[in-house]
């Protein structure tokens, strides 16, 4: 038995078993990354697809994902590699790629406009060791590194990665404890701390998926954006108003098929609310 220290779940993992995320395993009394180098998805994507709108716009980035996740969003669009039964089947057949091989692939794609590596598709924080190792080599090769994450990790994990990450898109999925704990199985406090620290060190953009009947009130958007706008840089100066926010429309999928897609007009109203506090607000999935 060993205790995992990556996120608030603090899983006690029996020997030979995996924790809540499905990707960290107890082996010989220690917790290891079972998904290290196990790549389930690899694609050269536009940087705007991450989404990052104010970080090297118009460029491409080699995007890699593995399997597993430490949240349980019922509307997950990548559930086949995150936390459904299919995720474990993907784990069995995932290609084993070393950090050196991944960076070499990224370098080969530079003539196609590639600027580096993006760790995305599933939750990269649960396999942070691979992110660290590949990102370190990527920087040595003159490339940039991006992480697309739910921000659910202890500060010590974040600090291990910050020297190697140039930009993040972080999901701020809502702004109530009820939504985080009851709907997606997360910790709002942990994500807020993660965002506040990450934004002091690297380029950060945020994404909020608007789920009808869950996190879709103008009052909640007002509270969320007020908090973001008040964030301070490492010198104590307010800089949160410059952090871009992507407000995205939700569609019925996976375990959340009992409601309609978010109304386009409502997305625009929430964007207008956000613009009272933030300089850069973008609409997605409309």
Question: Which descriptors would you attach to this protein?
Answer:
286 residues; alpha/beta; TIM Barrel; 8-stranded mixed β-sheet; two-stranded antiparallel sheet; 8 helices; 14 strands; globular
Task: Furnish the topology, listing elements before pairings.
Elements: E1 2-3, E2 12-13, E3 24-27, E4 30-33, E5 38-39, E6 41-46, E7 60-65, H1 85-93, E8 95-96, H2 99-108, E9 114-119, H3 128-140, E10 144-149, H4 155-161, E11 167-171, H5 177-183, H6 188-201, E12 203-210, H7 218-229, E13 245-249, H8 264-274, E14 281-284
Parallel strand pairs: 7-9, 9-10, 10-11, 11-12, 12-13, 13-14
Antiparallel strand pairs: 1-2, 3-4, 5-8, 6-7
Helix pairs in contact: 2-3, 7-8
Overall tally of structural domains: 1
Strand line-up of the largest beta sheet: 6-7-9-10-11-12-13-14
User: What is the CATH T-level topology?
Assistant: TIM Barrel
Overall 3D shape: globular
């Amino acid at each position: 038995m060993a205790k995992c220290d990556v996120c608030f779940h603090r899983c006690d993992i029996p020997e030979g078993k995996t924790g809540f995320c499905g990707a960290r395993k107890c082996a010989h009394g220690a917790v290891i990354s079972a998904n290290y180098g196990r790549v389930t998805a690899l694609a050269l994507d536009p940087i705007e697809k991450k989404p990052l709108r104010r970080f090297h716009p118009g460029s491409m980035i080699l995007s890699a994902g593995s399997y597993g996740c430490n949240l349980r969003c019922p509307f997950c669009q990548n559930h086949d590699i995150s936390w459904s039964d299919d995720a474990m089947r993907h784990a069995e057949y995932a290609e084993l790629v070393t950090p050196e091989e991944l960076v070499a692939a990224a370098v080969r794609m530079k003539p196609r406009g590639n600027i580096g590596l993006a760790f995305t598709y599933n939750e990269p924080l649960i396999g942070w060791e691979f992110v660290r190792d590949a990102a370190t080599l990527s920087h040595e090769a003159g490339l940039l590194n991006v992480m697309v994450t739910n921000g659910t990790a202890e500060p010590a994990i974040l600090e291990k990665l910050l020297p190697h990450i140039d930009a993040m898109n972080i999901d701020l999925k809502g702004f109530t404890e009820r939504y985080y704990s009851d709907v997606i199985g997360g910790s709002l406090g942990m994500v807020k701390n993660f965002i506040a620290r990450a934004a002091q060190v690297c380029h950060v953009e945020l994404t909020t998926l608007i789920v009808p009947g869950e996190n879709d009130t103008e009052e909640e958007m007002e509270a969320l954006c007020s908090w973001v706008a008040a964030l301070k840089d490492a010198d104590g100066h307010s800089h949160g108003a410059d952090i871009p926010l992507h407000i995205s429309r939700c569609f019925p999928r996976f375990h959340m098929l009992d409601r309609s897609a978010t109304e386009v007009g409502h997305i625009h109203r929430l964007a207008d609310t956000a613009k009272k506090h933030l300089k850069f607000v973008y609409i997605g999935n409309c």
